[in-house]
Amino acid sequence: MTLRPFHLAFPVHSLEATQHFYETILGCPIGRQTETWIDFNFFGHQLTAHLSPAPAEGVATNAVDNHAVPVRHWGVILTMADWQALAERLKQHSVEFVIEPYIRFQGEVGEQATMFFLDPSGNALEFKAFQQDTRIFAKAGDRPQVS
């Protein structure tokens, strides 16, 4: 199967704040938009922010590597260089992290760089990176591949 872009629609309380965050801070170009929604090119995927007057629900979390990870979240797996550049960009824009950029599961099969932060409507985003893409779906018993 050929990998294709995904589409995700999500609620926001302010299109103006959402547009600023996704376009200016994350660098996601805008596609179509109306007075009630905006499409973003989210690293090659289509995100649609829909204006929703209902308040966001509380953020449920699960413990992962001694951190409280928001259960509902989305993001992109970047190259390590792009992940590092995004982490620096977010810091320059004074984005508050839910989980600061760090290396999770160090020395284990699933070792990965990760960071979590919220958009202006409280939607949780995770960006991660692996040293080797072959490790993205690796299981605990898998042997490392030699490159």
UniProtKB/TrEMBL annotation:
Coiled coil: none
Pfam families, per the entry: Glyoxalase (PF00903)
InterPro entries: Glyas_Bleomycin-R_OHBP_Dase, Glyas_Fos-R_dOase_dom, VOC_core
SUPFAM superfamilies: Glyoxalase/Bleomycin resistance protein/Dihydroxybiphenyl dioxygenase
Domain VOC: 4-130
Gene3D superfamilies: 2,3-Dihydroxybiphenyl 1,2-Dioxygenase, domain 1 (3.10.180.10)
Protein's UniProt name: VOC family protein
